[in-house]
Design a protein that fits this description.
single chain; mainly alpha; 19 helices; 75% helix; globular
Length: 491
């Protein structure tokens, strides 16, 4: 049964390649049936593979005599794969309507399916070399989504995304060589794979290596100073692609950092060193800077992209504290942010699709014609701010209380302060859209947005994401218990 692990990885990749190579469809219906079937079947296979094979591994093949492409879904990988599956299927069905008037639709769906399989491979990776392989494949297969429109803006955004991603990946690859040389294994192991005596003898070397790998994987997660690709690439892509880029692709960097810190190097080696201090500083700078830039940005999709820069470093800050409760908060925010940010970008896509409006000041009165869309936007916005009873409140509560309980000088109180200031800025750049949308005041065209509610294929994913944001916030205990158990194992 272990071989079934390969099915949800290989099936969508093969389906995407077949779709890319086949001739154009005479009409859209066969294309949508094909893509929808692949998405659903892959989702079912992924769930079955996780249930049947959690903590059971399989080596697909060997690159050398000792380097295996090895898959082994643990709890962390299953959480990542589950979030990927939910977001990918919902955003995929949203794309069926959104991509109706886009060119090169077949190519878009081809790469969309391929990235799905690559991300599941990333989540199910059982060792460092497999994770690195799929991390690089994630960059290559996602780039066509960024430059899909082939406009000058999109092409330049795609090249910037590629350059930054490869630069970060090569920084990480530098560290992989050292782990291979000094580590007892490349398989992910709680507490790390390098013996403490070896770390003590090469402390300076491994601190530098760890920092380089953190910076390298941090590129994908939008951590300062390698963040500027994100607000360039995400707005250039079609809205459903922006949703999965911002909700999921960036989490690939987060997953890689968790694996590195907690399962390769080990948190005990980093705790109290200059690496931890530098990491905490960079995350807090990113949190504040991203929120401030989002607050000042007038273009809706770019505002949401800057928001992602900030929110991803909430997660990284929690991880940098090397504390169990903060670690739980980080994983909770991985889940919460994925659903919330996917919904926000899909909302932006629905607005652009139905009205053509791209700038925030153009949305005055939009709630009169698109009330369901704007209510979904409002609910997930409250989640991103951290207002109860939403999922964002639960994750940020654990992050703040975890920081306070660490007792780390300065950062134990500075962290919650920065998170609070960022939350206020988040409210400042998200809620005015709701207020002006429902209460536009005098002097606006009352009929401008009437009848502009998007089709059902667009509304249903928005409603599901909004429902998940509330459901996790109201009934978080199952998820908290699972992630807390994982934190006890890792920290």
């Amino acid at each position: 049964m272990a071989q079934i692990l390969l099915l949800p990885i290989l099936f969508p990749i093969a389906a995407g390649i077949i779709l890319l190579l086949c001739k154009e469809f005479k009409n859209r219906k066969p294309l949508l049936i094909y893509v929808g079937s692949v998405l659903v079947i892959t989702g079912i296979c992924a769930v079955f593979a996780m249930i049947q094979n959690i903590n059971n591994g399989v080596a697909a093949f060997y690159l050398t005599k000792t380097l295996a492409i090895y898959f082994k879904p643990d709890v962390l990988g299953c959480v990542f794969a589950s979030v990927v599956t939910i977001v990918w299927i919902l955003a995929g069905f949203f794309s069926f309507e959104y991509m109706k008037h886009e060119k090169n639709e077949k190519r878009y769906f081809s790469f969309y399916l391929m990235v799905f399989g690559v991300l599941l491979g990333l989540g199910f990776s059982g060792n460092l070399i497999t994770m690195y392989l799929f991390y690089e494949l994630m960059t290559l297969t996602a780039m066509p989504l960024v430059l899909h429109t082939q406009s000058r803006e999109a092409v330049m955004a795609g090249l910037k995304y590629l350059f930054y991603s490869f630069a970060g990946a090569y920084m990480a690859l530098f560290g992989v060589y050292f782990v291979y040389k000094y580590g007892t294994t490349l398989e992910f192991t709680a507490g790390g794979v390098i013996e403490s005596s070896v770390l003590r003898q090469n402390t300076t070397l491994f601190l530098v290596v760890t920092m380089l790998m953190l910076m390298g994987f941090g590129v994908k997660a939008g951590m300062f100073p390698m963040h500027s690709w994100l607000p360039t690439a995400h707005p250039a892509a079609p809205a459903p692609a922006s949703a999965v880029l911002s909700g999921i692709i960036v989490k690939g960097g987060v997953l890689a950092i968790i694996r590195l810190v907690y399962q390769i190097i080990g948190p005990d080696f980093i705790r109290g060193t200059w690496v931890q201090t530098a990491w905490m500083i960079l995350t807090l700078v990113t949190v504040f800077m991203g929120s401030l830039l989002a607050f000042r940005e007038p273009v809706l999709k770019k505002r949401l992209a800057y928001s992602t820069v900030s929110q991803l470093s909430y997660i990284l800050f929690g991880l940098s504290l090397l504390d169990g409760q903060a670690f739980t908060g980080s994983l909770l925010h991985v889940v919460a942010h994925a659903f919330i940010k996917a919904a926000l970008f899909l909302t932006a896509g629905a607005i652009i699709y139905m009205t053509g409006c791209k700038r925030v000041e153009e949305l005055r009165g939009i709630g009169k014609g698109m009330p369901v869309t704007l209510w979904c936007y409002t609910i997930v916005s409250l989640g991103l701010i951290g207002i109860p009873p939403t999922s964002g409140f639960i994750s940020k509560w654990y992050l703040a209380t975890g920081a306070l309980e660490t007792g780390i000088p300065v950062f134990s109180w500075l962290g919650p302060v920065v998170l609070l200031v960022s939350a206020l800025l988040t409210a400042g750049y998200l809620l005015p859209i709701t207020m002006n949308g429902f209460f536009p005041g005098e002097g606006y065209d009352a009929g401008r947005f009437l009848g502009k509610e998007p089709p059902l294929l667009m509304r249903v994913p928005l409603l599901i994401f909004a429902g998940l944001t509330l459901l996790i916030g109201l009934f978080p205990n199952v998820l908290i218990n699972m992630l807390s158990a994982l934190a006890e194992l890792f920290v």
